[in-house]
Amino acid sequence: MDQCIALLEEILVLTKSNEPDCLFFNITTCGPNKAYVREAYKDGAAALFHLKNMGHVIPQLFEVSDITVQVHGPAKEIEPLKEILPEADFYEAISGF
């Protein structure tokens, strides 16, 4: 868990300093063995930029933890992410604000 949190904090710092279209990036824990990251981006292009920008760190997360990835958003915004995140579950936004 410590390795996972350290990598997530590295991603947080890099995201905050290099990605103005990241709306938020939060790391939370639930007990000693579960961590959650909730992040949002201006649009699909900003999310794709993030994934490419963190490409050197993300594989390390998969090595040290059991990760589930969910992507939520309008169909046209999440479609380009499907190729780069084949292991993710994609949820098409229907309505909300």
Question: Would you give an account of this structure?
Answer:
This protein is 43% helix and 24% strand. The strands form two sheets. Strands 1-2 form a two-stranded antiparallel ribbon. Strands 3-4 form a two-stranded parallel ribbon. The model has no long low-confidence stretch (mean pLDDT 94). It is globular and about 35 Å long. The chain has 97 residues and is an alpha+beta fold. The protein contains five helices and four strands.
Question: By helix and strand content, what is the structural category?
Answer: alpha+beta
The major β-sheet equals:
2 strands, antiparallel
CATH architecture assignment name of the domain at 2-67: 2-Layer Sandwich
Spatial sequence of strands, sheet with the most strands? 1-2
Radius of gyration: 13 Å
> What's the overall average pLDDT, rounded?
94
Helix content: 40-55%
Q: Which quaternary structure do these chains form? A: single chain
User: Which outline best applies?
Assistant: globular
Count the strands? 4
How far is it from the N-terminal to the C-terminal residue, by CA?
A: 34 Å
The proportion of strand residues reads: 15-25%
Q: Indicate the CATH topology of the domain at 2-67.
A: Alpha-Beta Plaits
Task: Encode the helix/strand succession as letters.
Answer: HEEHHEHHE
List low-confidence stretches. Answer: none
- The helix count comes to 5
Query: Could you name the CATH class of the domain at 2-67?
Result: Alpha Beta
